[in-house]
Protein 1
Amino acid sequence: MLSEDLVKLTIAALEDIKAQDITTIDVREKTSITDFMVIASGTSSRHVKSLVDNVLEKVKEKGVRPIGSEGLDTGEWALLDLGDIVVHVMLPTARQFYDLERLWQGAEQSRAQHSPDLHPDHE
């Protein structure tokens, strides 16, 4: 599966259960670790876990095997490594504190709702 298609699938899975403030960051020019970061917020620890679980379910249905995950036990910040994409789902307080968007500033950043090329509703 192409990185861009995996981003679309991930965003759709997050939107399915009401993730907030979904952001995609193209980091292909910044690191060889991954192509994209998808960052989203959940409203509670339970919501964060549900969001990551839904992404896991949807990508597995398409034959994508996750490399790993972290933080599912606490739900404050959960990370899902899909190889070409790293998904971060956080509570708003953790997201504000760690400020990954600013950390990766200079990388091409776009809000999912403003990125027709990566948004699943604009195929």
Protein 2
Amino acid sequence: MAKLNPYLSFRSEAKAALDFYRSVLGGELDVSTFGGTPMEGMPTPDEDKDLVMHGQLDTPGGLTIMASDTPSFMEYVAPSAGVTVALTGGPEDHDYIKDAYEKLSDGATPGQPFELAPWGDYYGQLTDKFGISWMFDVAAQ
């Protein structure tokens, strides 16, 4: 089965962001750095060796978030306001998603509180301390 997963781009904060997301969502984190994964014909400058070439967080509930840093020899493209990570689920996911919203709120720019919305779902928004926009939606009973 195909999966659609967010792949987040950072200047140099991918490891800190993935560690934070792991503390919020749980799961197993696998990180490869530019220095730890040398590529033939592509020397890695010393200042880039600790940057994340690829990081992947697989959560207990089956969510996957991937991320990488941008080395000095590549152009950094910041996340756009139009890209959002959506964490959604049914009534059985309410506590998990509410807890994620509360933990991701640490250092975040508030958007919309996680509360019952006029259309009947629990809904909220924020931009986390790494500049990533999040949307939360849980179907009510």
Protein 3
Amino acid sequence: MILPPNLMQGDTIGIVSTARKITETELKPFLSLLKEWKLQPLLGKTIGASDHQFAGSDALRTQDFQEMIDNPKVKAVWCARGGYGTVRMVDKLDFSKFIQNPKWIIGYSDVTVLHNTFQNLGIASLHAQMGLEIEKKTFETQQSIYNVLFGNEHTIQIPSEEPLNRLGTATGVLVGGNLSVLYSLMGSASAIDTKGKILFLEDLDEYLYHIDRMTQNLKRNGYFTNLKGLIVGGMTQMNDNSIPFGATANKIIYDAVKEYDFPVCFHFPAGHILDNRALVMGAKTKLNVREKNVTLSFIEKHD
């Protein structure tokens, strides 16, 4: 797996939206943060563009992202917001120059499409807060992104007394992202291989029976077979029917994987939650789930 180069002060960061539309005004706090980090933001053509709910047409979003990953002056590309739409443009992208000169791609949720694509190309990417509302997240959220981008030590340790956790230690490449997006990518060129890896899952605003259906599909497709470990982040704002499903999202996932013996942790600080720590997707990691705490260490470094 290739880790993109670390950033340096003064580097240019491309800002794009591959999904839902967004204005420059909405990004002012984010742009101020980049300047605090001594990075130079370059707004793409999709910032301020509008095509119904999208940040411009599929063609514009494709062109904007393509230009940013091909531009040698742009050292990282940060997605401004999620929503839906990345899957409509990913197959039109040409990654030939990007493979020769990889750079950090930053985002989560709908950007899971890109994370999966880059993992299949052998290039790590950064599952992290979008530009939108980054100022509302925890200091740890912001600092974790900074640490990865600038090559500082990055380990996540949290206290945990979650009864659903399954204790143990695992080492493997970190893959995954948004459960709904992963589910939608099955059978496509962006589907991932979880064999011998650590899988991360998170989701937002889904019905509990949808969580069960998607999790059962992952199971039936062998995503949990030969898995080394499972990390469940925020399962946020879940919905239920008038006749309750009868289990929380975490319990649904727990029941789906209880027959396996890999370590599992829940309530990990990543996803659509206040504390959304950066995860290096595609990097080799070590997961240690203990009775009182959980540690995720990113052990893959630049050559």
Protein 4
Amino acid sequence: MDRQITQHRVYDSSPDDGARVLVDRLWPRGLSKEAAHLDAWLREVAPTNELRRWYGHDPERYEEFRARYLAELADDAHREAADRLRELADQGPLTLLTATRDPGISHTAVLAEWLTDGERR
């Protein structure tokens, strides 16, 4: 099934966002729950604190971070949240939200790839 999954900063919004799901472990600074306009907050699918701290959004570490996070996603601890994301994506457009400055090298990029391609591997 082709899923339309995008990623944005939680501070940005678009009328084409579809279901808006925050996938960060921590709540974004300076943002009220009302202003976030979320359909869900699935912090359980975010990288562990240890992995998040190790990575520190260092572009040099992205490939290793990607591999480690994919290994975490394969763990049963992420299954329920991942299933919920798949359900939302099957219903229409899904936007994965993060507070990180560069979503392209964040866990949202890995998660979007995993949700769209992971089942075909």
